[in-house]
Design brief:
- This protein is α/β, with parallel strands linked by helices.
- The protein has 11 helices and 9 strands.
- It has a 7-stranded parallel β-sheet, with helices on both faces. A two-stranded parallel ribbon has the order 2-3.
- Helix 6 crosses helix 8.
């Protein structure tokens, strides 16, 4: 006799974290508070996402800005499934063995972009270390499908690091996204605990290589603070990104998805975020977004317009 066990609902979201001791949860300060989602437009956005059988990082990562963004019909699509091959200590995305790529996903994403009426769309993905190219061709296919269906929509991608995936970056850059974003996430001293599957200087080199392949492409990277980093480490990270000619830096407060994740070591004050923005601008970034609730794709459309305007002004 064969017994079939359905683990769909009982399987832990983060099996590698299941046996870790619960971490202390710090009380959130007033400046972290957000309104609960639920407006009619929010529900309309939710319905479009569901109808197209798509995954969003807004939901999977537990983004605090989902109520605001979805109430404007702004959603960040997460392609290649909802299961990641990495197990970062900060991330709420499910860890495990991913499913096969869906060849029809690019068309569904493009159709959802049209139905939402997006002038600027952000596409991100889980890490797919199981694929030969890390999912690079799938990124390119999604970009191509969006261009075909929505020729006036600008496209921003937030990619994994394509670690040990030779030729993958070239495939993605050749597909001509308007913005290439790859997040460093944290300072190098925290990688072993926070982002153990990644390599800090590989990520720096990835961003630098994008500019070598296409000097006109905007590049962007983001970090979280509140993970125990020192201020001088953040400033050095800024210098590292500028050495790679990165145009746009985002800095936001880390918020732990659960007691099993890396704890919030402290809440950085709004004044400290303003200070980071001032310093980063002085270091030469074209644009800086630094606030407690800043996230990579938060206000991405407005930020892209500002980014393009700043570059044009400098070129005039």
């Amino acid at each position: 006799m064969v017994t079939l066990i359905d683990r769909t609902d009982s399987r832990p979201r983060h099996p590698e974290k299941a046996h870790r001791p619960d971490q202390e949860v710090l009380r959130k300060p007033d400046w972290i508070r957000v309104r609960a989602p639920g407006s009619p437009v929010y529900r309309e956005t939710q319905n479009i996402v569901r109808e197209h059988n798509l995954v969003t990082v807004c939901e999977e990562a537990g983004c605090p800005n989902i109520g605001e963004c979805w109430s404007k019909k702004h959603a960040t699509f997460m392609i290649m499934g909802e299961i990641c091959t990495r197990a970062c200590a900060f991330c709420n995305v499910r860890t495990g063995l991913p499913t096969q790529l869906d060849p029809h996903e690019p068309e569904r994403v493009a159709d959802a972009v049209a139905k939402l009426g997006l002038e600027h769309v952000v596409i991100t993905s889980v890490d797919r270390d199981d694929l030969i190219d890390g999912g690079a061709q799938h990124f390119a296919n999604v970009i191509k499908a969006i261009r075909a269906c929505n020729p006036k929509t600008t496209i921003e991608i937030l990619t994994p690091d394509f670690l040990r995936k030779e030729g993958a970056l070239e495939i993605v850059v050749a597909s001509k996204p308007d913005v290439f974003n790859h997040n460093l996430e944290t300072v190098p001293s925290k990688y072993l605990k926070v982002r153990p599957g990644a390599r800090y200087f590989h990520s720096i080199r990835l961003l630098q290589r994008v500019k070598e392949l296409d000097p006109t492409m905007f590049t962007k990277s983001g970090i979280m603070v509140g993970l125990g980093e020192e201020r001088n480490e953040v400033l050095q990270l800024m210098d590292d990104l500028r050495s790679a000619d990165v145009d746009f830096l985002t800095i936001g407060q880390y918020l732990a998805p659960s007691r099993k994740h890396h704890p919030v070591m402290r809440f950085v004050t709004p004044d400290e975020f303003k200070s980071f923005a001032t310093i980063a601008t002085a270091k030469g970034f074209l644009l800086v977004s630094s606030s407690p609730l800043t996230r990579s794709s938060h206000h991405a459309g407005e930020d892209f317009a500002r980014l393009r305007a700043v570059r044009n002004a400098k070129a005039a």
